[in-house]
User: Which sequence fits this backbone?
């Protein structure tokens, strides 16, 4: 037996949280009957329909690493008609991005239809490292590098310790390049961390997600993850919990 919202997420229809929302709205049926109770469990062979779509439990999971370019939103659809990262992946499966990168942020992004892995990767308790290269306006001081390492206050909360390295300073243009690795996933976290110290982020790129890097991938290009890489991602999440 398996909880209904977990089953919906595991076949890649949507996240578990979104599945719970759909259930409470009466948009999910099990064997032809509407289910609104979140504690409902299902068994193999049960026919599940979400928003009128019958789930295909035989669907194979897919995992992709994308080098996200600028000008794409990290959603499955956009009400403003902007391009989404889904448009860049050639697949008939209903995949979705793991976490978010801003419209003007580039770099490593995982997309999958494996709801369980997506939830693990996005859970702060999993403490999955994400490395960014940040270009800011201003001359970043060593003192501020130390503050970023120890944690700064954003949205009323102190960020956790981070790995931070000052890569270079351009005195003529008055800009700095900083490498920062965090394992949290707060909204606009990296930008807000630098803004809290008075620096405006002018360019942001995620270089690595866990052990995955963008070697060989140009902006807009992607590759499938190997079974070995997927297993390592699972083990990293469970190790840190």
Assistant:
């Amino acid at each position: 037996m398996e909880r209904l919202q977990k089953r919906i997420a595991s076949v890649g229809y949507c996240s578990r949280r979104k599945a719970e929302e759909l259930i409470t709205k009466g948009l999910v049926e099990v064997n032809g009957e509407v289910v609104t109770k979140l504690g409902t469990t299902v068994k193999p062979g049960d026919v599940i329909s979400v928003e009128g779509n019958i789930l295909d439990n035989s669907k194979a999971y897919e995992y992709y690493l994308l080098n996200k370019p600028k000008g794409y939103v990290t959603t499955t659809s956009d009400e403003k008609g902007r391009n989404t990262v889904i448009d860049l992946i050639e697949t008939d499966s209903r995949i979705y991005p793991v976490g978010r990168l801003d419209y003007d942020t580039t770099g490593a992004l995982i997309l999958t239809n494996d709801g369980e892995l997506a939830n693990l990767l996005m859970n702060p308790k999993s403490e999955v490292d994400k490395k960014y290269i940040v270009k800011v306006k201003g001359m970043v001081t060593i003192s501020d590098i130390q503050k970023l390492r120890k944690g700064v206050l954003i949205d009323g909360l102190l960020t956790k310790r981070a790995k931070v390295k000052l890569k270079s300073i351009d005195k003529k243009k008055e800009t700095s390049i900083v490498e920062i690795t965090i394992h949290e996933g707060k909204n606009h976290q990296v930008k807000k961390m630098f803004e809290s110290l008075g620096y405006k982020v002018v360019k942001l790129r995620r270089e690595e997600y866990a052990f995955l890097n963008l070697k060989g991938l140009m902006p807009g290009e992607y590759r499938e993850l190997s079974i070995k890489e997927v297993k390592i991602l699972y083990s990293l999440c469970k190790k840190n919990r």
Notes: The mean pLDDT is 91. The first helix runs from residue 4 to 10.
